[in-house]
């Protein structure tokens, strides 16, 4: 049985980032992934990356390899309600509030950087189970083989491990229909977050186009996929009126949306990161940003502790340091979806008034902007 210091389950953008953050740690690291190597390069989604995430990707040495589109302004509005909020990067002395990057391009840059380190990836190796003990974790593979490691990091896909700790789950009864649209005029680095009774509608600058994340009930998502391009484009245009015009739209795809998270991201010689720890609604684009903050903090805790990476006190330190940001981001995104997806007139007008107040009160607006850039602690 092969023995390692750290086995990372999942060679996607989260798992590869953890391996890169620990490349000089002296740990014997192995990544295992159920897919062929490089499969994550084909991911058609786009990611909204915060300014804080850019800083971390710079530390990992991959930022300059990414085709990033800067978000200079974010326009937040509520369909059917008064009020709107405008966030501007120039107010915070930053080149951008965030960036939009194709998920496949990010995976490719991380994979290329990982290849130069010599850290191995075992592909086509699905993990069927984890068994944590006092001194090690036995990682069982679907082909019947086993690995022994001092620490297992579950970094992708379904939440893995023993079900001794309950999961919190909530189905939003929404699907995200995604595509790339062509704006009639240059987007100017502006992102739009439009709250509708069916769910949030995000338009993100992506290259010369706009990435669309269109939230809808499952049946409506079916209908949106079945529409021809012209009809879908007309409906999209109706959500924005004259403030934003589109000239064309590309192929559409869909993803179900839910909230699912582990209350405790650590177990016996095991840590859960990324979607294996929490799956968030894409509103405000916080999913990968939270995951990368978790990755960087986990790596720093392991580097400071030295010695046994799976020691109980080391994992407890990580969980304690991440409690505020993790719980705050989960609650922040969940509250946004629940509040702004209601079609009740009093709540709709209250949300509109809240957006207006946010725009008129700089301290409150700055708090929201800094939370989006750096997480719940609101500093880099």
From TrEMBL:
GO terms for biological process: ubiquinone biosynthetic process. The keyword Lipoprotein does not apply. Residues 5-324 form the FAD-binding domain. Its cofactor is FAD. Keywords: FAD, Flavoprotein, Monooxygenase, Oxidoreductase. It comes from the Bacteria. Pathway: Cofactor biosynthesis; ubiquinone biosynthesis. Belongs to the UbiH/COQ6 family. This is 2-octaprenyl-6-methoxyphenyl hydroxylase.
